[in-house]
Design a protein that fits this description.
109 residues, Rossmann fold, 3 helices, globular, alpha/beta
Length: 109
């Protein structure tokens, strides 16, 4: 499966975040799935990766500056992040995400 650039989904360990992670992976995006719980993330990634999709996990608490820093550092290392998103009930302090290099998202791709 050809992959598109990276997408980042926060709150990816369950609910709408997990569904969003699966939807983006099924559309060919490589996904950095972020949440506090490493075990639920590993289950989701394992399910998708065994089918040839690329899902990387990062356990981070985005209510802390350390968690936000970890996500930003990983995003910068990934390079081409096309689709940063948050599915958290309470938006994290992600103002510095606006500094990430991104491309225009085309949902029809």
């Amino acid at each position: 499966m050809a992959t598109k650039p990276w997408a980042i989904v926060t709150g990816a360990s369950g609910g709408i975040g997990a569904a969003f992670t699966k939807a983006l992976a099924n559309r060919g995006y490589s996904v950095l799935a972020v949440a506090r719980g490493a075990e639920p993330l590993a289950r989701i990634a394992g399910e998708l990766n065994k089918d040839g999709r690329i899902v990387e996990t990062l356990a981070a608490d985005l209510a802390t500056s350390e968690g936000v820093k970890a996500v930003l550092e990983r995003a910068q290392a990934l390079g081409d992040v096309e689709f940063p998103s948050t599915t958290l009930a309470c938006p994290p302090p992600v103002a510095s995400w606006t500094n990430l290099p991104t491309r225009k998202f085309n949902p029809s791709e």
